[in-house]
Amino acid sequence: MKNICKHSNIQFLFVKRNYCEQLPLFFLQQSVVLLVLASVFLLLNPAYAQLDSANPPTDDLDYADYQKKIALMLPEQPDLLKFEPLCTFRFAPWPEGLGEAAARFEEAFRGYSLKVDNERVLLLDKSGRTLFAYDSRQQKQLMLATDHQAQTLQFDDFALLRGDRLAVADNSRNELLLFAGNRLEKQLGFDGDRILFRHISFVEADRLGLNMVLYDSGRDRTFVFNNSGILQWEAQGSSQPCFMGSSLIRLEKQDDNLKILRFSSISRTPEEIASYTCPSGNMLLDAWVAGTVGGYLAIVVYEGRGDEDHPDYARLLILKDGQVLSHRFMPNLDFRLQLLTPYRLLLDRYGVKLVTARISNAGIEIVAASVPLK
């Protein structure tokens, strides 16, 4: 129960205790005087009005509340990307999910290939010889292609092409196999008497599925084919699994600097379009192209002060017209998960997202973070 009375233009609060005894008026008057004096003291000594993180309180504030106050004192980090679960490709007996070798990380486990196609997330289970897809619009997982039962193919990478075509990289044959529906349409491995490939590192389609780029690390050579498997052009050196218009992207990594180069069928000599230098004291550990959207090029960089197995943090670089926008995020440190390209740029009806994969008890979990482009 609370009673309020007024006396000399000052409002006092009487608190009735459980045993029906009111607090004396003189006690409240003294409390008001002490409160006023304390307020004057804090105004004259502002240093005492804020929490000192070097001298945490002991008796008057518990640990949890103190941590909350410390968190409020820390500077904001508006550029820190936050990843949230998007879907999970479950560990389950075929054809319901990923194979046993992947779940148990047996010797037969050979990793995955993570890609995006419109609003779908694609995951190739290489040891299970099966390609799965998750449709973010329908929130549904399905199987797109498999050789799990026949086991005649070695799935090293893939590309979805226009006209219901599927390109499969098979390093047991040193060939790129082109399927139309369930029919093998073409085997790409020779150009006349010339052997094209020694080891295919990746094959990647453009956004429309009209062309595909292939990098052969055995010969350090890049090839571009159309969706019918006809060789369009080739160039010496590596490229990233990404088209930027009709051009390709190459990354040159140095100790603390990353150069972004572009080359095409017109200009086979790579031309520098941008560069990134780590903050003082940091070193560049690794970098990948995540994709392009609307003229923006997205690159993920791992950097830190230790070795490549201990990145301090990751950085997403957004490039357009020579300008570089940077967003930080925590790197994926689970090195059990083998991905050809660990980060991809997904465009759905909600906007642009950076997606990656991580291991969970249920399967391979796909997580996504919204990416502001400006």
Descriptors:
disordered N terminus, 4-stranded antiparallel β-sheet, 10% helix, Neuraminidase, 374 residues, 2 domains, single chain, mainly beta, 3 helices, globular
Count up the domains: 2
Outline the low-pLDDT stretches.
Answer: 1-38, 40-49
The CATH superfamily of the largest domain appears as TolB, C-terminal domain
Radius of gyration computed on alpha carbons: 30 Å
Q: For the report, how would you describe the main beta sheet?
A: 4 strands, antiparallel
Strand content: over 45%
Describe this structure in words.
A hairpin with a 4-residue loop joins strand 16 and strand 17 (231-236). The protein has helices at 25-44, 63-73, 100-104, and strands spanning 2-7, 10-15, 84-90, 112-117, 120-125, 130-135, 140-146, 157-161, 165-170, 175-180, 183-188, 190-191, 194-195, 200-205, 211-216, 221-226, 231-236, 243-244, 247-253, 257-263, 271-277, 283-293, 296-304, 313-320, 323-329, 344-348, 351-359, 363-370. By secondary structure, the protein is mainly β. The protein contains 3 helices and 28 strands. Mean pLDDT is 82; it is low at 1-38 and 40-49. The chain is globular. 29% of the residues are buried. The longest helix is centred in the N-terminal third of the chain and has 20 residues, at 25-44. It has a 4-stranded antiparallel β-sheet with strand order 3-28-27-26, with no helix packed on it. Strands 4-5-6-7 form a 4-stranded antiparallel β-sheet, with no helix packed on it. Helix content is 10%, strand content 47%. The protein has 2 domains: 1-49, no CATH class; 84-370, TolB, C-terminal domain (Neuraminidase, 6 Propeller).
